[in-house]
Amino acid sequence: MSNTIESTIQFVKEKLEGAEAGHDWFHIERVWKLSGKIAQTENCNLEVVELSALLHDIADPKFHDGDETLALKISRDFLESQSVDGKIIQQVLFVIQNISFKNRGEAPKDLPIELKIVQDADRIDAIGAIGVARTFNFGGFKNNLMYHPDIQPKLNMSKEEYKKSNGTTINHFYEKLLLLKDLMNTNEGKKIAEERHRFMLTFLDQFLKEWNVG
């Protein structure tokens, strides 16, 4: 492991201390490890992949009044302080800017493989058993209802609608999480996502069965 990666890990751990449990250091660590796993199957710049994975949620707009520029500033300042090559910094900032689900409509069509890898890893951590746990943790954090049979999922929301949405936690599966399997970029990402997607379907079937006392 390079000194730059070690320094970045320490920086992120300190920066995210006390963060909401679905977007804390352990989320970053899982995405970093998943990115490394996927990167082994692709021809890519591993330094860009690792730095992007480690810094992708350094200032998630959800927790900073929707500010999408803060993460870019923090990441740039840190990477410059570590004397990272300017070209690498630009590539990392590009990943951070274009990784999110809500920004998918604004992202360029021809994405670099490094972004595809980290995006897959981030989306994989949003599904499966970990995804279920993170979703309910965040729903509780926002004091959202777990489920309401009269509140239907809002499909095809615009970016602004998505940012303002305070729907139920169960609806979030239909509005986002169940869509992620088909948005994977890499073959390895698709393979990992398949299993996790099946788990979510099983969970939702069981949840609704128990809710309806079936």
UniProtKB/TrEMBL annotation:
InterPro entries referenced in this protein's UniProt entry, alphabetically: HD/PDEase_dom, HD_domain
Family annotation (CDD domains): HDc
All copies of domain HD, residue ranges: 24-127
Superkingdom, taxonomy of origin: Bacteria
SMART domains (UniProt xref): HDc
Protein name, entry field: HD domain-containing protein
Lineage: Bacteria, Pseudomonadati, Bacteroidota, Flavobacteriia, Flavobacteriales
